[in-house]
Give the backbone structure.
Amino acid sequence: MNSTIGTDILMAIRFLEQGKLVAIPTETVYGLAANGLRNDAVLAIYEAKNRPQFNPLILHFANPGQLAKFGLQLPEQAAALASKFSPGALTYVIPASDAIPDLVTAGTGAVAVRFPAHPVTQALLRQLDFPLAAPSANPSGYVSPTTSQHVAEQLGDKVAYILEGGASEIGLESTIVSFLEDQPRLLRHGGISLEEIEGVVGKLGLPQKGYVDNPVAPGMLARHYATKHPIQIGDLQQLTAAALTSFRPTDLVVIGFNEAVDSIPATHQFILSPTGNLREAAQRLFAALRLADAMDVQLILAANFPEQGLGRAINDRLQRAATPQKIDTSN
Ligand code: TXA
Ligand code: MG
């Protein structure tokens, strides 16, 4: 954990130009960035995260105007969404070009592109003459980081620099939509809600089962955002009552939406939004999961969030964290 956290964009640019890794703030989560056109730099990302190379990376640009230079183009429906939601928390899977390394696309022939809105990373991207490949800045399979401190704790000794940008405003990864077929297909719920996207392009195709985190070998990465403590999801009152038949209250930690549970001490409860605001809950989710995971408890109990707006992405992340690992992907 000896890396430098700071706000020096020019220093970040120097490191990136040398092919080194720099953690960057975005409005969704922090990214682990490198020159997306250099194989050695992209390879360093996979190594630092211990990420399987069949899991492709998102390329980040300042704006859609930068795509043509690299032989890329947003299909019509993607362009319609971009005019409304980019820069922002939406990622577009589109046909790749010869300029994009196979390591970035994992040989799929398609590339995911995103235009992050965070002002620090916008300023950075505008000064680079290459896009940044950047997955979330966590070891593969663990909860994504929403602060520079989260990055420093887990990958601090693997990055040249961590660009400080405050706590991520959205707190959940971008929504991913694929434009490889006639009907756009949702690949991952995220910071822009399904309702907002369908408001522009109509009904989306649903994710193919197991597709989201690994388009090459479906299903293998179903468990993601995993905590070391097991997680149960459901009605909190019922889960708590059942858990208390075999655990003490202090063996449990609760992640709730807007209501605390009576029989658990307040210090063992993270109530993500007392006012019932899904945006606020999303913003706080990953930090709460990390804190809960660091506690000396046996079990994490998480609420079912309303299946609407950002609630879908929250439920998706909790379910992935709770799914028992079926296949070891050496995450
Ligand atoms: O909000 C975000 O999207 C953050 C910030 C840093 O931009 N990035 C992020 O990257 O979440 P990552 O690598 O943790 O998740 C990207 C997901 C992976 O599940 C990957 O399989 C999928 O995007 N993906 C990337 N390229 C793809 C492609 N060509 N086709 C299908 N899925 C792809
Ligand atoms: Mg990730």
User: Anything to note?
Assistant: Residues 183 and 205 are 6 Å apart (CA to CA).
